[in-house]
Amino acid sequence: MNATSPAAPSAAQSGRVVLLTTSHRVAPGLLSWPAWQVLHAADRVLCADGAHPQLPYLREAGIAVDEVSPTAQDLVEACAGGQTVVVVATGEGEPALTDGLARLAGTGRVRMPELELLPASYDLPGARLLDLVQVMDRIRAECPWSSRQTHEGLAKYGIEEAYELVEAIEEGDRDELREELGDVLLQVVFHARIAEEHPEEPFSVDDVAGGIVAKLIHRHPHVFGDETATTPEEVKAHWLRTKAVEKRRTSVTEGVPLGQPGLALAAKLASRVRTAGLDVPLPRVEGIGYDLLALAVRAEAQGVDPEAALRAAARAYRDAIRAAEGAGEETDGK
Q1: Do 54 and 35 contact (CB within 8 A), yes or no?
Q2: Residue 16, phi then psi, degrees to nearest 5
Q3: What is the distance between the alpha carbons of residues 33 and 326, in angstroms, rounded to a whole number?
Q4: Which site among 92, 216, 260, 330 is 20 to 30 Å from 300 CA-CA?
């Protein structure tokens, strides 16, 4: 008598496991419509974390949640007979549970339920900035070094990070560029966190972001308003007009930081003069400084950043120095 193998179970018989993931960067309770449908239709809803931020909102919506930490075998048994079990994932995403289900499936001896991953909420662009703010807040509170820093003490790091960012851009190193952008962003968040503690005029990173958002919208009426701009020159001209009204400046030189590198300062002043349509002759004075001023003004008029041009030349000079050093070592070694 030949033994007959049992028929393979249908999907309806083996049931279904839905792993529901949520983002901690989205307010609890703000779930997608498919997520709410699955939760309401499920035969059981499980969550290993009794303090999961979603639980109060699920229960308020009439969904019973069992606070248990099931094994892979527990889930398979709970799905028997075509049951649907939803697992509300913790922050780690339940890797032990999914690994266990994979091992069971690999044996070929277990009737496995369908396994579905359902993101119930998604991060919006920029959501990881919230993580940075939270991490910075904790570091400021708990780190012996960071908790003592001031705006004045950090100022030099801001300058250093800005130069390192410029170097990464000029070198064309994408990995380095990403890292240096993060370092510059850290300076912004760090200063904003320190500013929260000011006894009389505190402000937060939200105030900083809100201010720049308002400024960008106001200075881009061709994007957010009724005005039009078809060339970069028209955009720049409007930007400068709007900025002058905002700042109530009486001179085109106002707002130009004198502490910046000399070539950049000279080029910036020349740019302001040219944009304003002024005719200002260069000082007729002999000396290297005035020669450099004339070169910077000429470079700006030709659309060349004199600082970047000089750095490029300096890098070429550095390479020549290294080549000469290498040639000297070879000669000495003979």
Answers
A1: no
A2: -150, 135
A3: 67
A4: 216
Residue with tokens 């105030």: 207
Contact in structure between 107 and 11 (CB atoms under 8 Å)? no
pTM recorded for the entire structure: 0.69
Q: Determine how many CB atoms are found less than 10 A away from the CB of residue 202.
A: 11
Burial of 231 (0-12, 13-18, 19+ CB in 10 A): exposed
pLDDT digits (tens, 9 = 90+) for 9-30: 444 578 999 999 998 888 899 9
Contact 117, 20 (CB under 8 A): no
Q: What percent of the chain has pLDDT over 70?
A: 94
* DSSP for residue 43: S
Query: DSSP string of 55-85?
Result: HHHHHHTT---B-----HHHHHHHTTTT-EE
Rounded Cα distance, 328 and 67, in Å: 74
- What number of residues does the chain have? 334
The burial of 292, by beta-carbon neighbours within 10 Å (0-12 exposed, 13-18 middle, 19 or more buried), is given as: middle
Integer Cα distance of 99 and 107 in angstroms: 13
CB 332 within 8 A of CB 303: no
CA 204 – CA 163 distance, rounded (Å): 26
pLDDT (tens digit, 9 = 90+) per residue, 312-330? 999 999 999 999 988 766 6
Number of C-beta neighbours around residue 165 at 10 A:
18
Which residues neighbour 30 within 8 Å (Cβ) at sequence distance 6 or greater? 121
Token pair for residue 283? 């000082």
In the sheet that 44-46 helps form, which strands lie side by side, from edge to edge?
44-46, 84-88, 16-21, 114-119
Least Cα distance to 264 among 239, 301, 297, 286 occurs for 297
Contacts of 114 (CB under 8 A, 6+ apart): 11, 14, 15, 16, 17
Parallel/antiparallel/unpaired status of strands 44-46 and 114-119: unpaired
The Cα–Cα gap between 235 and 221 comes to 9
